[in-house]
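The instructor's notes for this session suggest beginning with a concrete chain rather than abstract definitions. Hand out the sequence below and ask the class to guess, before any prediction is shown, which regions might be ordered.
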Amino acid sequence: EFTLGNLADKIFLFVIILSVFWIVLRIIDFVAHVLLTRSAKTKNKADDQLVPFLKELLKFIISFIGFFVLLGYVFEVNAVSLITGLGIGGIAIAMAAKDSLENLLGSFLIFLDKPFTVGDTVKVDGIEGTIERVGFRSTVLRSPDKTTYVIPNRAMIDGVLENLTMRNARRVKFDIGLTYETSSDTIKTIIEELTTYLKDNPATTDGTVALDSFGDSALNIQIIFLVPMNKDFDLIKVKQEVNFKAIEIVGKNGSDFAYPTQRTVGDAAPDKGDKEHKEVNI
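After discussion, reveal the predicted structure:
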């Protein structure tokens, strides 16, 4: 028989159980905060990634247990019978949660395989950013322009992922165009001096300089080198130094950089004041 006394008991029991599990969840948050503070002082980044994941996992398990405890003690529902009786409905729920389960499995694979850790710079599906957090369902990236990307864990393991942090060097490749008036000996001298500079420069390795092709308006010199992934070497500044050195060497040897030109030559010798024979700069 249902009475107000029974209702009051149920409400009291509901509040007690809810409070106990709420306190347990807050304890998990506190312990995780302490562990994160300590892990931030270590060089190993794996613990920075593991602590948030374990926190979410424990909170999910506690919440799941708390839900069935409430069903059993407050609403007097047999949890075992409820789960068993789901039958086809349980299969339908599992199918509906297929993506979530795949993302959850992806998070476990990320921790087991460790293709990246928190703080690494990665590129996946054309998106480049720094790993900020790996959760149950998704991974949070922060792009260089400070945009936040939330990518499902399934995409992180199914797609082609580049871990830019694990590279030991960055490759730089570009061309400079010299005018066709530049002699072969001058080109060889420019190539030799650029090669020597790249070899002697501590910020560049495996430097290669060569006459690559004959362009429409220029003799194309290709420059390739590697910049070690070292905190002492800034890629942008290294490229700038190489560019300035190239300008210096080309100017010192009496050559010049080409620009697009179009030359039109008439069939007959031009008369005085006639400009059939002309060169047009574009």
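Then share the key points. The radius of gyration is 34 Å. The chain has three domains: 4-85, 106-166, 169-261.
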